[in-house]
From TrEMBL:
Classification via NCBIfam families: PQQ_enz_alc_DH
Family, similarity comment: Belongs to the bacterial PQQ dehydrogenase family.
InterPro entries for this protein: PQQ_b-propeller_rpt, PQQ_MeOH/EtOH_DH, PQQ_rpt_dom, Quinoprotein_ADH-like_sf
Binding site for pyrroloquinoline quinone: E63, R112, T156
Claim: Cytoplasm is one of the keywords in the record: no
Keywords of this entry: Calcium, Metal-binding, Oxidoreductase, PQQ, Signal
Name this polypeptide is given: PQQ-dependent dehydrogenase, methanol/ethanol family
Species name: Bradyrhizobium pachyrhizi
Amino acid sequence: GPMEDYSPVTAARLENPEPGNWLMTRGTYKGWSYSSLDQINTSNVKSLTPVWTFSTGVDSGHEAPPIVNNGVMFVSTPYSQVIALDAATGDLLWRFKPKLPEGFSALHNTNRGVALYGDKVYHAGLDAMLVALDAKTGKVVWEAKVEDWKTGYYMTMAPLVVKGKILVGVAGGEFGVRGFVQAFDAESGKPVWKTYTVPAPGEPGSDTWQKPDTWKTGGASTWMTGTYDAESNTVYWGTGNASPWFGDQRPGDNLYTSSTLALDGDTGKIKSYFQYHQNESWDWDEMNPPMLVDFQKDGATTKGLLKTARNGYLYWFKRNPDGGISYINAQAYVPQNVFKSIDPKTGRPEVDMAHKPATGKAAQFCPGLWGGKDWPYEAYNPKTGMVYIPSNENHCNNLEGKVEERVPGQWWTGVAIPDLHFSVDTKASFYGEIQAYDVDSGKRVWRNLYPASMMWGSILTTGGGLLFTGGTNDREFRAYHAKTGEQLWHFRTNSGIMAPPSTYEVNGVQYVAVQSGYGVDAAFQQGLMSELVGWQKDVPQGGVVWVFAVSK
Ligand SMILES: O=C(O)c1cc(C(=O)O)c2c(n1)C(=O)C(=O)c1cc(C(=O)O)[nH]c1-2
Ligand SMILES: [Ca+2]
């Protein structure tokens, strides 16, 4: 089998992955979710058929892409399992099934993928443990405690490998944790650096926490994988909402909540940052990092960053030679009623206070707390020059805050889950959609509307001129024409698909792979939609790895 000559993953391979492999969650450090493979293309995709499937035996939301290294596939599942499979045949090679601690529960029982380096597989567990597994056997090589899960920290993202270090971020923004990004030595598991995303008194930015001690529980969790610019050795990492949710309880801008941080890859030092909205009060985590995309501006190619924000805006930045972030422009990609304007120089929004919830003051805001988009990945195709955004419209929340005492490890947002007051425009002709924008002009080129579903699918785009995604409540996996948005193929799977598809090649055959397995917030929202507009309450659950190829 393919394990006998397992090929170690080097820093050079990660910087320049072979087209036939999918070595990290979004394909490359740039975060494009793009593969140059083109054997499957717009003319033959109609003949795409399943070649093998594998039941994970796990329920809840599967959010990890199949990671593939020369014929070996690694998938992770909810509840922190890792499964190694023969990427061509679906044979099970090994399974890592950790025992989660007694009494353990997480708000989001999911995982977004493993990282590969050397002859090891790295996995960030819900119990806030980072484990290194032997890629050939699945045996634990080392374990590192990132945090104490009892205090509200958990981990859901895929680690990021940077020059022999394994970088992880934490979740817990709804529990009042203090976020950080931490790096561990890939060989030994020893901690190398740790950068908090909320400054302590005396550190730069600490004056943005005006009320004593609010910084200690300030949120800014780091629950999605960063992107990386090897040239400037800069890691771009996103941060989540501030805690608790209502900004009047923690006066100030609250750096670095809902921001992108530019970190030095060797030391973790904060080089630069951009905060999308200040004194966060909408649960608009800005956890996704920007993609590294170059675009035309004023007749010249600009080394840039493109960020699809949960706050409903699409942002263009300049990536400075030292990795620093300079604001260029932003435009709404879904209707949003919170920003009155955005300062053209700084990118700082002016907020309409009528749509900013506070303690004892209810306010409605749109899009609602799940944002213009939540975590599912947008994609960039260099052949079309377009960014593809899985987004949602015509939904709002109406929140009113309360002062609550914090109990470590418990929901602490200032509003109870039954009081989230999610609403939708029941007359709307659609809710979910895919939108394609030209990254040079910012013009929308096409959109595809889903009248009876939200869109929670990560997007893969390919050199074959295609987009692959699921994300809808009808269990479909679909292929679209990247230029026109025309649907070219679809296949009904076992469950709903949120996980990012990936594509790879073994023995000259191109495969497209994806995990189907609905759950977590998409399922939560689907339940609410069943009350509001009568959609079926449950989308079937249970994880299956699907692998497709074009039949010859
Ligand atoms: O603040 C946080 O730490 C945090 C963590 C996570 C997570 O780790 O999955 C989510 C969120 N927030 C969140 O706001 C959110 O909407 C969300 C959706 C999902 C999901 O997996 O579908 N996770 C999370
Ligand atoms: Ca959050």
